[in-house]
Specification:
The complex is a heterodimer.
Chain A lengths: L2 H14 L5 E2 L2 H10 L4 H15 L2 H11 L7 H15 L3 H11 L2 H4 L2 H17 L3 H18 L4 H9 L17 H18 L8 H16 L2 E2 L2 E2 L7 E2 L4
Parallel strand pairs in A: 1-2
Antiparallel strand pairs in A: 3-4
Helix pairs in contact in A: 1-12, 3-4, 5-6, 5-11, 8-9, 8-11
Chain B lengths: L3 H15 L3 H15 L3 H9 L2 H14 L7 H19 L3 H9 L2 H7 L6 H15 L12 H12 L3 H14 L3 H9 L2 H8 L4 H15 L3 H9 L4 H9 L5 H17 L7 H15 L7 H10 L3 H9 L2 H9 L6 H14 L4 H9 L2 H8 L5 H14 L3 H5 L6 H11 L4 H14 L8 H5 L2 H8 L5 H14 L5 H11 L1 H8 L4 H15 L3 H4 L4 H16 L3 H14 L4 H11 L11 H6 L4 H15 L7 H10 L2 H6 L7 H13 L9
The chains are: A mainly alpha, B mainly alpha.
């Protein structure tokens, strides 16, 4: 039985449980699980939603062909969006900005915070590549005006410029700005903005379902002892503690 | 001043635009686009250096060219990119929008909507939408048939930028009742309702347009609410729970417009509570912009019940919490202050909460803000809170920290700021404990008198209002100080001021001035009775009932003094130049339908004829009888106003023994 099926049946069953605390054996539990009906189409749509939102356009296309599930947005737009995300992840921020402007010129014009973060990332990349002079000029010409237009950016701006003050950048207090995680953060922000502009949900549904399972299990723990799923990736039922 | 780098960059770009090679042109356009998007400072520089005109020309040339020697797709690309650049200049930037309009690009952009290329239409629609977000966009005439048809076709288009453009046009240009009705009759409400089910941007644009069409128009609101058995209204109510904050805000604004226009709708306590909670929560959301506090104000202004609900939902605490954050945009601060002002405008419980939390400290700080609008909002807030009689009487507002910054605002050049500061001071000076010392010590009196000579009528009248409150029940020393500063000639000229509101306040001031002890009455007689004569003259000529009432109370107060005072009042009541009975203003006033005026007049008459034991009392009564005033009074024995009735009877009772009777 597929992992998904297992997890979802578990979830459905917990939701139907009675309120008194009791012990349920594995046999009883599995029997109940088997009685719960989950539709294949629903699961397919969840998978498609995940692939599309995360931007796995080739996988989404293949999945569409093999399962017959229609994606809820045009797969062509995923390619553009993924190109932007990739550019940021590789540190080619200028390229990413141009691509976003080609896709939808309003996004950066109406999202000052996102634009600031992209400019900030550009500055970080210049510093990373040792182009100190260029970095200073960039900070002055491009970032300082953003700080003037919106005072809430000033603190972050100061943190970023502080990188220039340290000889050994990787070991300074603001060194985390140079991490890959910062690039990923910016990339994720751009991705979300593009999805929103296309009226698409920026978060996939799957994580919400898993969170719901964990929460429901925690709730049920107060009322019963039953076989739990402790490892979401394997969805294996572990015997109740008696 | 455009920076050197901007000049340098732009001259290169303009050279590219001027090239005959279309690939080079296209490259220059894309470069310019990427240079300006997201950068207000760059847009400003480029606008000042004439970039917009150059791009507008590029667009125009591309549209008018025959297409020989250049493939269509490059031509379309140039059109798309120039439209995008123009749209970006106009985005959220009035100077840019103005430049686009001035460059004559507007109509070319409109032409793009009819071109058979989806991307071109999209670019044109988007750019026009940006222009229409500015107040400077040209007005759209809905009353013309062709225009209405065009609007309907825009709204029916599947492309969300095109339908969004239709909605933006409505939001921008629909101003009059006639336009609202015309749009409603053309079926626009139904079109907008269907857009509520569309994409995020269609929904938001539609909500804004709906609010514009419904505002203050009962007929259109009724049609909307009845539309599809209330389903349209239900859709909007649902959207107030939407997960996107901006959508929630716009839906709330729409519902508030409906409620304020037709109070019988949306009366359910659940809806009211939901609106209050949603707006309070939106206050804290940074991506919603500055509109949330203004929307909250429009919900609660003048509505006690909603203010009570908001108080229970901790509105004051939440507003205070927002005010403490730093940095804040001036528009947002203004909104929060006005919201606090509305909360405290009617309910003492709200003012209590406000004062307990010590919000006043922050509000007084705002009096020194750079932005005039913020200062005005702070003044309005203080004016609202100082309506708390118990705190006013306890002298909690007559403090240096509050009064000094307010008086500083008097010196500012903007009349709007002066009027707002005067409004706040007017309440604060009604203070009996500290003898208004903080105000006098910081030089407030001198400033106030100077404002009473302002060129602006509303400043003069508000300054007099403050002065009037200042001397209300004040001791003789204060009255003397005020009178020395103001002087009789100025006061007399204010009584005869060209503006009726100023006349009224001047009279009210004199009323308070001469009230109290007998010595105060002498003020009316300084400089050869300058003030008394001015009042008499005004009473003869004015048609405004409020001025008449104040004037009669002045005469009434003066007549409460010595015999000589009463004689002087008689001379004003019965001026020599008048001989025909009906020309005496006293008689006209007694016949007035306004009970306050009849009351004031009767008081004056009572005071001139009492006490009966005064040497001249009897003589004055006879004079009044000779000109028919006593006859008029006798007709008022059963006046519907109790106050009038009682005074009339008192007058007649005292003289009953002399030929008068109570019949």
């Amino acid at each position: 039985m597929s992992l998904f099926l297992f997890v979802f049946r578990q979830l459905a069953e917990i939701e139907a449980m009675a309120t008194s605390k009791k012990v349920i054996t594995r046999e009883e539990w599995e029997k109940k699980l088997n009685d719960v009906k989950i539709r294949k189409e629903d699961m397919n749509r969840l998978v498609m939603n995940f692939l599309v939102t995360e931007g796995y356009d080739e996988a989404a296309e293949k999945f569409r062909m093999e399962s017959g599930t229609e994606p809820d947005i045009n797969l062509g737009t995923i390619t553009d969006r993924m190109a932007v995300k990739k550019a940021v992840q590789c540190g080619n921020v200028e390229d990413a900005i141009e691509k976003v402007n080609d896709l939808n010129p309003e996004i950066l014009d109406t999202n000052p915070q996102l634009f600031f973060h992209l400019q900030q990332q550009r500055l970080i990349e210049l510093i990373r590549n040792g182009k100190v002079e260029e970095a200073l000029e960039f900070a002055q010409e491009e970032l300082a005006p953003r700080g003037e237009e919106n005072q809430s950016f000033l603190e972050e701006l100061e943190r970023t410029v502080a990188l220039l003050a340290f000889e050994d950048v990787s070991n300074c207090p603001v060194g985390e700005l140079l991490d890959m995680s910062q690039r990923l953060k910016t990339a994720s922000e751009v991705n979300a903005a593009i999805l929103t502009s296309q009226s698409h949900e920026k978060d996939p549904k799957l994580p919400s379902l898993l969170k719901m399972l964990i929460w429901a299990q925690n709730q049920l723990d107060e009322k019963a002892a039953y076989p739990r799923i402790n490892d979401l990736s394997s969805a294996v039922l572990e015997d109740p503690a008696v | 001043m455009p920076s050197t780098s901007s000049r340098h960059e732009l001259s290169e770009l303009l050279a590219g635009l001027a090239s005959n090679d279309w690939e080079v042109k296209l490259g220059a356009l894309r470069h310019m686009k990427n240079k300006i998007i997201g950068k207000k400072d760059k847009k400003l520089d480029f606008v000042e250096l004439g970039a917009v005109a150059a791009v507008a020309k590029t667009l125009s040339d591309a549209l008018n060219v025959n297409g020989e020697g250049n493939p269509d797709n490059i031509k379309n690309n140039i059109i798309i990119q120039s439209a995008t650049v123009l749209g970006s200049f106009a985005c959220g930037f009035d100077a840019g929008a103005q430049a686009v309009i001035n460059a004559g690009a507007f109509f070319n952009l409109a032409r793009l909507l009819s071109i058979q290329d989806a991307k071109v239409v999209d670019a044109g629609a988007r750019s026009l939408r940006m222009v229409y977000q500015s107040k400077l966009a040209p007005k759209y005439n809905f009353l013309q048939d062709e225009n209405m048809k065009r609007l309907i076709s825009l709204l029916s288009n599947e492309n969300e930028n095109v339908s969004g453009l239709g909605a933006s046009i409505i939001t921008h240009s629909c101003k009059t009742t006639a336009e609202q009705v015309a749009l409603c009759d053309a079926g626009i409400l139904e079109k907008l309702t269907s857009l509520l089910e569309g994409s995020i941007s269609q929904r938001d644009a539609s909500l804004e347009s709906l609010a514009t069409i419904l505002k203050n128009n009962t007929e259109v609101v009724l049609k909307f609410v009845e539309n599809e058995n209330g389903r349209s209204l239900d859709s909007v109510i649902e959207l107030a729970k939407n997960k996107y904050p901006r959508t929630r805000l716009l839906a709330c604004i729409c519902l508030i417009v409906i409620r304020n226009t037709c109070p019988s709708f949306l009366q359910d306590i659940g809806i009211k509570a939901k609106l209050v909670r949603t707006l309070l929560e939106l206050l804290e959301d940074p991506c919603v912009g500055d509109e949330a506090p203004f929307a909250f104000s429009s919900l609660i202004a003048q509505k006690e019940e909603l203010q009570r609900l908001a108080l229970e939902a901790s509105a004051i605490e939440k507003l205070y919490c927002q005010l403490q954050k730093d940095p804040l945009r001036p528009k947002y601060i203004e909104g929060i202050l006005l919201a606090l002002a509305d909360m405290c405008s009617m309910l003492e419980s709200c003012r209590d909460s406000f004062l307990k939390l010590e919000v006043l400290d922050l509000v007084t700080k705002a009096l020194s803000h750079d932005s005039d609008d913020v200062c005005i909002a702070a003044c309005i807030c203080i004016r609202s809170v100082s309506r708390s009689v118990k705190n006013l009487c306890a002298g909690h507002f007559m403090k240096d920290t509050i009064v000094t910054p307010l008086v500083k605002l008097f010196i500012k050049s903007s009349t709007a700021v002066q009027v707002a500061a005067l409004g706040a001071i007017s309440n604060i000076v009604v203070d009996f404990t500290t003898r208004k010392s903080a105000f006098i010590q910081c030089g407030g009196l001198k400033e106030l008198v100077q404002l009473s000579e302002s060129m602006d009528g509303s400043v003069r009248s508000n300054a007099l209002w403050a002065l009037r409150n200042l001397i209300f029940l004040a001791d003789n020393k204060l009255k003397e100080d005020v009178f020395i500063e103001l002087k009789a000639p100025l006061l007399a000229s204010l009584i005869s001021d060209p503006e009726p509101f100023v006349q009224e306040q001047a009279m009210a001031f004199v009323r308070n001035l001469v009230d109290g002890c007998i010595d105060s009455i002498e003020y009316a007689f300084t400089d050869d009775s300058l003030i008394l004569k001015a009042i008499g003259k005004q009473l003869q000529s004015t048609a405004k009932v409020e001025i008449r009432i104040q004037g009669m109370y002045v005469l009434s107060n003066v007549a409460a003094g010595k015999d000589s005072h009463k004689e002087a009042v008689m001379n004003q009541l019965l001026p020599q130049a008048v001989s025909i009975r009906d020309q005496y203003f006293v008689i006209r006033f007694l016949q007035s339908s306004d009970s306050q005026l009849r009351t004031a007049t009767v008081w004056a008459l009572l005071n001139v004829t009492h006490p009966r034991s005064d040497p001249g009392a009897f003589g004055r009564y006879i004079k009044l009888q000779e000109v028919g005033i006593i006859t008029q009074i006798k007709n008022m024995i059963n006046d519907p106003c109790l106050e009038v009735k009682l005074r009339v009877r008192t007058i007649l009772e005292k003289y009953a023994s002399f030929g008068g009777s109570l019949l």
